[in-house]
């Protein structure tokens, strides 16, 4: 692990000192700030009385060679009149462009889940990334770096969820691949794949979202989430999936 960290630092340091005047021009570019608010709701009636609310807030700030993305989401559900889910998650990622598409990044995530497998699930990592493709309508980013994971298990969910029965504090290796595509003026497609490898478990999460603009500020978004686990308890499947439909209001 120490050798890996040293290699990352040497690569970043070498690339930073090799930056030329063309790279520095990005430092004087104007700041750009955007934010989005999303809200989704599903109601079922008949044999099942269930209401599910999902809300999210996304924030992006770009200044020169620096880019920061932050988002937070809330999921609440009631089944037969009683609370069944309450989950709050937050993510933060900052990137600093070095040269020729290379960038350094730092990221953190936090999940507070009352009824899920872990009351608290947090992760922090840092590393180096590369912009594979950068066109007007298509972009691909890939990055990798070491990190640290903390998980506080919900022991009541051991028989019905993917959960280790002990507190997890471990070093991990995180890697992500993000692709964005805008085939039409009003349609955008984004796919994010995130891998977190650790001794307790390795997870592969894929998020695919399609967003269609209705007006300049309002859009409809459909998201598909798929998560694969290398370890699961007996008699359980190695994957979870979900679908979320939301209306999004953008502020620029």
TrEMBL record:
Residues 1-18 form the signal peptide. It holds the Pfam family DUF481. The keyword Signal applies. InterPro entries: DUF481. Keywords: Signal. This is DUF481 domain-containing protein. It comes from Photobacterium angustum.
């Amino acid at each position: 692990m120490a050798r890996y960290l040293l290699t990352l630092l040497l690569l970043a340091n070498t690339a930073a000192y090799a930056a030329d005047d063309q790279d520095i021009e990005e430092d004087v570019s104007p700041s750009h700030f955007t934010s989005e608010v999303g809200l989704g709701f599903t109601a079922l009636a008949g044999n099942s009385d269930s209401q599910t609310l999902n809300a999210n807030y996304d924030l992006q700030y770009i200044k020169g060679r620096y880019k920061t993305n932050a988002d937070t989401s809330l999921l609440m559900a009631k089944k037969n009149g009683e609370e069944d889910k309450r989950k709050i998650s937050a993510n933060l990622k900052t990137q600093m462009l070095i040269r020729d598409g290379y960038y350094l990044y730092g990221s953190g995530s936090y999940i507070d889940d009352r009824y899920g497998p872990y009351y608290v699930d947090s992760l922090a990592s840092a590393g180096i990334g590369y912009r594979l493709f950068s066109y007007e309508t298509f972009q691909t980013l890939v990055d990798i770096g070491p990190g640290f994971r903390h998980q506080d298990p919900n022991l009541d969910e051991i028989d019905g969820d993917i959960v280790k029965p002990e507190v997890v504090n471990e070093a991990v290796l995180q890697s992500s691949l993000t692709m964005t595509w805008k085939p039409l003026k009003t349609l955008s497609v984004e796919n994010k794949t995130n891998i977190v490898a650790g001794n307790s478990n390795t997870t592969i999460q894929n998020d695919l979202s399609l967003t269609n603009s209705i007006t300049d500020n309002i859009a409809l978004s459909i998201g598909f989430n798929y998560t694969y686990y290398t370890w699961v308890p007996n008699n359980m499947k190695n994957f979870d999936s979900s679908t979320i439909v939301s209306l999004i209001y953008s502020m620029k």
